[in-house]
Structures are given as structure tokens and as C-alpha cells.
Design a protein that fits this description.
Largest sheet of chain A: 7 strands, antiparallel
Helix content of chain A: 25-40%
Number of domains of chain A: 3
Shape of chain A: globular
Structural class of chain A: alpha+beta
Radius of gyration of chain A: 22 Å
CATH topology of the largest domain in chain A: Vanillyl-alcohol Oxidase, Chain A, domain 3
Number of helices of chain A: 17
Distance between the termini of chain A: 20 Å
Oligomer: homodimer
Strand content of chain A: 15-25%
Chain lengths: 457, 457
Amino acid sequence: MTIPANAAEALSQLLGPRFSQSQADRDLHGQSETFHTAPPPDAVVWPLTTAEVSQVMAICQQHLIPVIGWGTGTSLEGHALAIHGGIVIDLMKMDRVLDIRSEDLQVSVQPGVTREALNTELRATGLFFPVDPGANASLGGMAATRASGTTAVRYGTMRDNVLALEVVLADGRIIRTGTRAAKSSAGYDLTGLFVGSEGTLGIITELTLRLHGQPEEVASAVCAFPNLEAAVECVTATIQSGIPMARIEFVDADAARAFNQASGSQMREQPHLMVEFNGSPVSVREDAEKFGELATDFGGQGFDWATTPEERAALWRMRHGAYRACLALRPGATAVVTDVCVPMSHLAAQVAAAAADIRAEGLVGPMVGHVGDGNFHSQLLVMPGDADELAAAKRVAGRMAERALSVGGTITGEHGVGIGKRPLMRAQHGDAVDVMAAIKAALDPQGIMNPGKVIPD
Amino acid sequence: MTIPANAAEALSQLLGPRFSQSQADRDLHGQSETFHTAPPPDAVVWPLTTAEVSQVMAICQQHLIPVIGWGTGTSLEGHALAIHGGIVIDLMKMDRVLDIRSEDLQVSVQPGVTREALNTELRATGLFFPVDPGANASLGGMAATRASGTTAVRYGTMRDNVLALEVVLADGRIIRTGTRAAKSSAGYDLTGLFVGSEGTLGIITELTLRLHGQPEEVASAVCAFPNLEAAVECVTATIQSGIPMARIEFVDADAARAFNQASGSQMREQPHLMVEFNGSPVSVREDAEKFGELATDFGGQGFDWATTPEERAALWRMRHGAYRACLALRPGATAVVTDVCVPMSHLAAQVAAAAADIRAEGLVGPMVGHVGDGNFHSQLLVMPGDADELAAAKRVAGRMAERALSVGGTITGEHGVGIGKRPLMRAQHGDAVDVMAAIKAALDPQGIMNPGKVIPD
């Protein structure tokens, strides 16, 4: 579609140069980090206030223009691609930390604040925001996709750490969900409904987040395992034993090779676990000892402790750089990224089956995972334009999803549905998809909020 | 209303004697634990299977008969009262623990399993289900009201501990929400939507719950404080310090007196905190010492440790019996129970203001609270038929709610809305109430699911 002239006029009057139909701006907001592609949106707006978002929505509703929210553009499932055209609302100019309430362990932020910016701002308070998807994503985007990452095993996902939202609905109405209380039983959990709704029900314009005390003591380590099964079984045993891991990440031999190549690390080209312990000096020592015993039982060796803050930062920077490091294993490649999450008792078998399938299809597909949650990723490297390779990668991804569903798992643990996982939604949810569609129709009767995402046809 | 003859015929054919219109059965399902009253329902059914619930719903939908779910009948807000007549679905015959998956720290249960029955069943596994609202409520009812209780400060509420549901919708369709994975980003959080929906969107017929390892070491204690402010400020300091309390409960002087009278305990008639620590022997000792120092700073004295499992059980039995113990302070009385929850930094002032208000109105209103969450209750004792006293109690409750809302808190931390809190919903949620109503209309277009609850007119 193209933007009707009177809509463009209204947006231009409202936003001045913060409404753009230039090719450059549109192209910048038509990118994706993965193999998903789509034509760029028809226009981009950069609101500064909730009132502006509301007015943009009212104009778009009037002209039935699709609206797509945009944060840092780091989605892996094509969430922010304008597949039906329309206007991208880039929220990155709404980037203020509004109110740090240290005594209540809470902060209110605008959606364009990134997680790193927030934690920089919080440094002096002794508090931090734990959810950590790797990318330095915007908090609005993280809420919209129900992101999690390396620390979810201890601190939960965005579902657990968003207390309240301000949301602009499809018709421009502004609502507030949730409260500043730690819990509430006052009616439907709208906060939980908007978290993970991927911009299909409304645009998040403010978030109230739970904060956590910076742990007194932190210890991180890397440990090699003789094979993939041993590493993953060690994770299952660790979680079942109740050791309160702050992080427990799986890295396969290919990913270790990618890390070495990208970061100059000297990991053995073997499966590894990267772990972190948080707490008091006494509890961290106790937890680390217990984990060490379990790791030894599973053949873990060569514990490499990151003792200084700098070493720890380097360790997790390396882990956070996994996506780009793995892409570099095959220069020029793009990726099909899988994201299944399964019950712990099935994790080792599922990871092993995925590895075997990747090998059988002759693909390069390093694997990493937030395995303390049962969540693991393979990054299937394909050359753009190689249809056979893309088809093989999609077959592997499809079988991983099928296997996950066969044991009661999910097709996506943290990346969200976007366009990539949409065809699998009915396989996972059955008729519950119709309930999702009914909610979508109730809140967005014209279907202008990020159309073509989440809900299958 | 009365049940149309052909509907009664269909229900009778389906359920035989498990469909009843007898006055005795109706009266049993028209009770409330508090001052809320309503005429009994027109009929009661006791389904044994999800399929039966589905068929009951289909019949009720066809004849536009209101349907109200029923568990143990321990709601404090009149949730299960048939205020528009109709049929109560008593789910207590669906009481099987279906599948304990110890390795995944999960269990699947039918909705009529009570929390105590579940924990009895789990005893041999080393696992337990932590959510503990005091009453031995059904797990279906606890999910429907988003219950929490004494352990939420450590283990979260039903929102955090329900992983998946089976739900029968208004038209009889059966859906499954959620998965067996620890987390999921696959579309709208329907599990979270049905948890806390109080039977207004569907009937929960199966729950998958998170389990937790029984802690290696448990220590409980009671400690007296010179006044209410000191006790509550000690709680705020404790939470802010990050000590991972398993329980931290406030009891005022009146409630202590009620405990002494009901349980033969010998508490001083002063405000108290009742606390519990869970963990390894080392961490419990460390946590208890840190808390002891804080308590001493706030004038806490007379630490009374419950060291044996029997003593601990007696301590928490006493706490769980608070509602009846407090009622017994005034024989013949019924109660208006308040349930506000506020941000920690406002807790002491809000508790003190409530106490002053109760005194000023000349009411007896012992206070207890899950203060680690910022949640506290006053139990305003009123004599049935004394309209002035009831009006005074409602004034006090109304002002507590207003004060909670003025600091961003909630009108109900854990009891739910029912009919009691319904008039306050718009004050708390503003236009977000219309979004709740739109969802309700989308999922229950005929309005037969527990009508007159949660959503205000």
C-alpha cells in the first residue's frame, strides 16, 4: 500500500520531520537479522510521547494503515517486517528512564530504553534489571516478544519482570495495566496479555519493571565436557538438585570454535557449560562446590573461573556475541535460528536428536542454549539464494519443533512467533489459537496492529 | 431464574444423580464465608470428566443458563454466589492427581484436588507445591482467583506456578493453554489470562503446576515488636536487603490475642512477625542471622524458634487458622475482609493508617498480612443485621482501597474481585476495564460464565 495523501499530511503536521517516507528511512526499517525478508514499510514515524503514539494510531485506524512497532530491530523471527506495508513506529526516541524507585525495587521506563542503558543508569543504586537476551534490545521490544535469555533460569523472563504497562490501543486509547504492588488479583492479567503479544494488540509506551539487588558475590566459570549428552545431562541434574544457578548455558563444539575465532578465546572444541553463581560469599561457594561435584560426575573438566569483573564481562560478552560469531563461521551466510524449549527430562535426547539431524542434512548449525530452562538454539547457516540449503534448514527446524511438541514443549522459548513460527501455531496450540484470534479481533477489529504476525490465517 | 424443563432433562440424562435441584444441595452451594449473601443457585452438577463439563456448558449455552464454578467454597469475595441464578458446577469430584513428573518438577491435576491433598501425594517425591492461601482450597479455585498466601514472597503466586491449563469455554469447546516447557514465547499468554479470571471466561478442568524441591533445612520463628510501625518497617528493610525469606507474616496485637484464645499459644499481645527460612543448613543459618540483626535493630525481641517439624506445623496451623480465630474474638460476628497490596515503601504508613481508621470507627478489626509482598488484611468484625456497623466497616475498607490506589497499589492482592471488589475496578484500572470487558465479550458473548463478577457494569 501507499500512505493516503491526507494521512501523510496529518502525520506530517503532527510530527514534522519525525514522519518520513524517504527510501533510506524505509530501508533502515525493513531489515531483519535473519533470512526473513520483506519490502520496506511505506513510512516511518518517531514519536516522542505517548500522546503522539496515540495520535498516530488514531490516524492509522482512520485510514486502515498497518502499524508495526520497532525497537532495535534485533528480532530473529521477522516481527517488525512490514509484510502488509504500512507505518513503522520507531520507539527509540522514547528512551527515558522515568522513575527509579529503589526502595520498591522498581523502575518505570519508556520503551526505547535498552537493557544496557537501563543497567548503566542503575549502577549506583545497587540494583539491576536481570533479563538478558544477548542483544542490547529495547525494553519495549523485549516485553513485546516476552524475551528472556541467560538469566531466566534464576530471575525469570519478561513475563515475570514486567509489573505494569502503559499501552496505546489500535484506536488510540491509552490504558494502564498492572500496578506497583508485588502482586494483584484484581481482574484479568492484561500486563501478561500484552507481554508477548508482539505489537499485535497495542503499542507499549511505558513499562514498570521489577529490579533485583546486585548480588554481593558473583562467580562464573566455563567447563568442558566429553560430549554433548554429558553436558546436557549435567544441566538436568543441576536443575533437579535445586542449586540456584544464576546462569547455566550450553555451547556445542562448533560454537566453541566460533567463539575462539571471534574472541580469541582458547576453548577446547568440545561441548561446554558456561555457569554463573550469585549470592553471598558463603552461598556462592556452597553452590559452586555442589555444581563442581555434579560436573565431575558427568566428566566435566578444565574448570576455568572468571574471577574478576573484567573476566566475567569478557566471558558473557563472548556468549552474547554468539550469533555473530557463529555467522562468521561461514562468511556471507545468513541463519535459520531455532528456539525450541522442552521439559528438562527430555532435554538431552532432544539436543542429541537435533545435532544428529543437522549432521544428516549436511548443514553447519552450531548450537547454544539456555539449557537451565530447557531452551536451546541451533543456528543453521545457509547461503542467501541457495534454495536447497534453505529448504534443508527449514526441514531440520521443522523436525525440531515437531519433536519439542511431541514431549509437551514449545516451538519458541524466547524469540517469539513473528512470521517465522506462525505456521506452527496451530500445531502447538490447537483450538486455543481461535481464542487468541478472538482476543485479537476484540482489541484490533480492523486488524491494523502488526498484521500477519503471531495468529495464523 | 429456574432451569428450563428440557435443560433439566438433558442434564439429568447426562449426569443422573450428579445433577440436583434439591433445596439442600442448592443451599450448600449458596454459602459464603463472609458477609456476602445471595439466593442459592437453581441447580448443582458434579461432573467427573472434562467431557461432562463440556456437555454441561453446551447445554447451558443453548439455554442461556448462568454457570458458576465451585471448589471448596472458601472465597472471601462472594465469587461463587449465584447472584443471577443458574447452575453451580461443583468440581470437587474431579479430584485426581493425574501425573507427577518429578524429573520436570511438574504435576498435572484435576481442579478438585486441594493443596493439602496434593502435598500429601507429593510427600515421597521430595517435592512440594508451595502456594498456600491458608484455607485448604482446591487448586482449580486457587488458579481461578490467582491465590497466593504466606509463601508468595519466595515462591510466587498461582500466576507464577501454573504452567498450563485445560479450559472448557462458554460454548463447550475444550482448549489447552501453555506447555510443559519452563517458558514459552509462542503467542498470547492464555494461561495467565485464565488464571485470575474467576470463572468468567471458562471452567478450568486440568492444571499443570510447577513443583519445588522440599528445602533441605527449614527454620521458623515468631518475634514480638514494640509497635506496629516497627514490625512493618522491619519487613521493608528485610525485603530491601534481599534476604530470601520463605515466609514473613505480620500479626497485630488483636490477632495475637485471637491466636492465644484459639490455639492456647502464649504470644504477647503485641505486633509480631512470623518468619520462615528455607535452604541449605548453611544458608538458613546465614539468612536467620541477618534477619535477627535487622529485627533487633527494629526492637524485635523474644525470638521463639520452632525447631521441630511438629512445632513448625503448629505455628503455621495457627496462622492458617487466623480467619476463624479472629471471628471468635466476637462470637456470632461475620467479617468484611480487606486485601490491599501496596509497594513496600508505603507499607508501614498504610498499615498504620488502616489501624488508626479502624480505631476511629470504633470497630474490632484484627490485622494480619503477607507483608513481604506488601499485602495485608484487616478482618472487620460486624454483627449480622447491624447495618451501621456494616456501613462503618465498608467505609474503612473503602478508604483502605483508596489509600492503596493513591500509591499505585491494588484493591486486592490475592482474594480476587468477586462481587466485593467489583465496584472498585474502574477506580483501579480506568479504561483498561473496557479491555477486560471486550475480552469477556469475545470469549463469552452470551455472558453466561459467572455473570456479575469481576467486570463492573
